[in-house]
């Protein structure tokens, strides 16, 4: 978890491209655009030929942000050459976060050549499969659930890459948006429930698979379509020549779609298109529904000031304030919190707590727009609640008339087994206070706190069947039985 924002941590971002003269360069730009999905580490693997004409994989990966890892200009001209590449931004949901060997993409050389894999999601039966593979003689190099997929592919007795990958994917459960690079093709696959987004694009004569459309936009690439839940697609030389994208079903029977609703609430960038909808459109609708059911009025008839916790709740706050106006409530959207994007190390002074200075180093208030005002702070979620409490304390320094928090999601009551990294159930503020909103309100120090209900949340999922979303973190209704889920700490051991 991020020490300063106290948010659920994003899973990972993946990108693959074939048919580009310098494939690692658009991969680098794409990882910039997908930086929000993982800030621990990043890597790129490119595919090229050596002087003897043999296919080789070139790799470069490390800890840190994309701009720091790939800071040397010659990386793309000398070290990561080739017409195919796959890239990955990492936040660890399974596997030790401080082990360099766990940085993706992973590579392996087996009887049919090279493989590289980038994975966004969580395999819920990884621990059981890993145990079986070890007993059969497999040797694991990492503690990541993703390596399980490589071993399953390598052990398959089928005689072509596509069948081997399908064979492996039929054995795994959980969430996955995968990009696999072989010596001559890119294979992209999405789990049968479609928990995580995965889309296809085209850049001139090259073809792309990636987590979000913002990775296409930065490269001036065009979106083709999404990879469907339970679909495996192949991008190869024939795709480049004819535009034909080969498509296969992973399983014979379709599973009901269960898109992660948190992708719309918080994870994905507002300028992306996922699950067939614009994220910005859905977030504005969330704000609108939040205002319809949980409005705030100034007792003296003055303007209500609506602010967001930047940056993830900006769009929902705009939707909230716009709906207040439509409801006849005098209000305006203001920039009440300024966020620093250049957060450095925290050094504690006498009398300061780590949490207090952590919030102050990232946020500051705009006193003039808050003083003597009824303030509505719109946020997308509350996890532990400690940062929200410090933000309220910060806002009170501007002497507002009152402070009201409105959350564009229900209370988080349960851990996620499909790619989000929430703290333990005991650490979640809604559980700590028995989901008693009044007690959470008192802990945060606000005049009122309101969450969306599950029904209100799903009513904002316009253009979608409400049954097609996973809301397990709110409801405890897991689409895949949790008795198969591995324990992250056990896997790390």
Question: Overview of this structure, please?
Answer:
- The structure is a single chain.
- The chain is an alpha+beta fold.
- The chain folds into two domains: 12-274, Aminohydrolase, N-terminal nucleophile (Ntn) domain (Glutamine Phosphoribosylpyrophosphate, subunit 1, domain 1, 4-Layer Sandwich); 279-462, Rossmann fold (3-Layer(aba) Sandwich).
- The protein has 19 helices and 24 strands.
- A hairpin with a 5-residue loop joins strand 2 (41-49) and strand 3.
- Helix 5 (146-155) crosses helix 6 (161-169).
- The radius of gyration is 23 Å and the shape is elongated.
Show the helix and strand layout.
Elements: E1 12-18, H1 24-33, E2 41-49, E3 55-63, H2 66-69, H3 74-79, E4 84-90, E5 106-110, E6 113-123, H4 126-135, H5 146-155, H6 161-169, E7 174-181, E8 186-190, E9 199-203, E10 206-210, H7 214-217, E11 222-226, E12 231-235, H8 237-242, E13 246-249, E14 259-260, H9 261-267, E15 273-274, E16 277-278, H10 279-293, E17 304-308, H11 314-326, E18 331-333, E19 337-339, H12 354-362, E20 363-365, H13 367-370, E21 374-379, H14 386-396, E22 402-407, H15 429-432, H16 437-444, E23 448-451, H17 454-459, E24 469-470, H18 472-475, H19 488-492
Parallel strand pairs: 14-24, 17-18, 17-21, 21-22, 22-23
Antiparallel strand pairs: 1-4, 1-10, 2-3, 2-4, 5-6, 6-7, 7-8, 8-12, 9-10, 9-11, 12-13, 15-16, 19-20
């Amino acid at each position: 978890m991020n020490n300063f924002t106290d948010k659920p941590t994003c899973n990972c971002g993946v990108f693959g491209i074939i048919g580009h003269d310098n494939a690692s360069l658009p991969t680098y730009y794409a990882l910039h655009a997908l930086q929000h999905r993982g800030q621990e580490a990043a890597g790129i693997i490119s595919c090229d030929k050596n002087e003897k004409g043999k296919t080789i994989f070139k790799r470069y990966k490390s800890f840190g942000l994309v701009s720091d890892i790939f800071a040397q200009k010659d990386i793309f001209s000398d070290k990561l050459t080739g017409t195919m590449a796959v890239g990955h931004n990492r936040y660890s949901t399974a596997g030790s976060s401080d082990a360099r060997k766990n940085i993706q993409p992973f590579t392996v050389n087996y009887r049919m050549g090279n493989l590289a894999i980038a994975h966004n999601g969580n395999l819920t039966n990884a621990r059981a499969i890993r145990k079986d593979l070890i007993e059969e003689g497999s040797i694991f190099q990492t503690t990541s659930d993703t390596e399980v997929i490589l071993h399953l592919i390598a052990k398959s007795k089928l005689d072509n890459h596509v069948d081997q990958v399908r064979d492996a994917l039929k054995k795994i459960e959980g969430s996955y948006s995968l990009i696999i690079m072989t010596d001559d093709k890119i294979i992209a696959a999405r789990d049968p429930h479609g928990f995580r987004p995965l889309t296809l694009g085209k850049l001139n004569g090259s073809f792309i698979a990636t987590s979000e459309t913002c990775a296409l936009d930065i490269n001036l690439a065009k979106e083709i379509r999404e990879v469907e839940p339970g679909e495996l697609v192949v991008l190869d030389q024939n795709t480049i020549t004819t535009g034909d994208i080969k498509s296969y079903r992973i399983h014979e029977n379709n599973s009901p779609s269960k898109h992660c609703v948190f992708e719309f609430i918080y994870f994905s960038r507002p300028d992306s298109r996922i699950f067939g909808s614009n994220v910005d459109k859905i977030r504005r609708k969330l704000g609108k529904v939040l205002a319809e059911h949980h409005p705030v009025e100034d007792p003296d008839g003055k303007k209500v000031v609506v602010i967001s916790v930047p940056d993830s709740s900006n769009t929902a706050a705009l939707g909230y304030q716009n709906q207040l106006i439509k409801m006849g409530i005098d209000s305006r959207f203001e920039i009440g919190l300024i966020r620093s994007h250049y957060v450095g190390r925290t050094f504690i002074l006498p009398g300061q707590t780590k949490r207090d200075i952590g919030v102050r180093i990232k946020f500051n208030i705009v006193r003039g727009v808050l003083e003597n005002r009824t303030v509505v702070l719109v946020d997308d979620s509350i996890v532990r609640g400690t940062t929200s409490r410090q933000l309220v304390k910060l806002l009170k320094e501007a002497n507002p008339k009152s402070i009201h928090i409105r959350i564009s999601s229900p209370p988080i009551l349960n851990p996620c087994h499909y790619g989000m990294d929430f703290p333990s159930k005991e650490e979640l503020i809604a559980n700590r206070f028995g989901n008693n909103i009044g007690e959470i309100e008192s802990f945060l120090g606000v005049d009122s706190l309101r969450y969306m209900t599950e029904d209100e949340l799903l009513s904002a999922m316009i253009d979608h069947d409400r049954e097609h979303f996973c809301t397990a973190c709110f409801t405890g209704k897991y689409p895949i039985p949790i008795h198969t889920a591995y324990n992250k700490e056990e896997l790390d051991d």
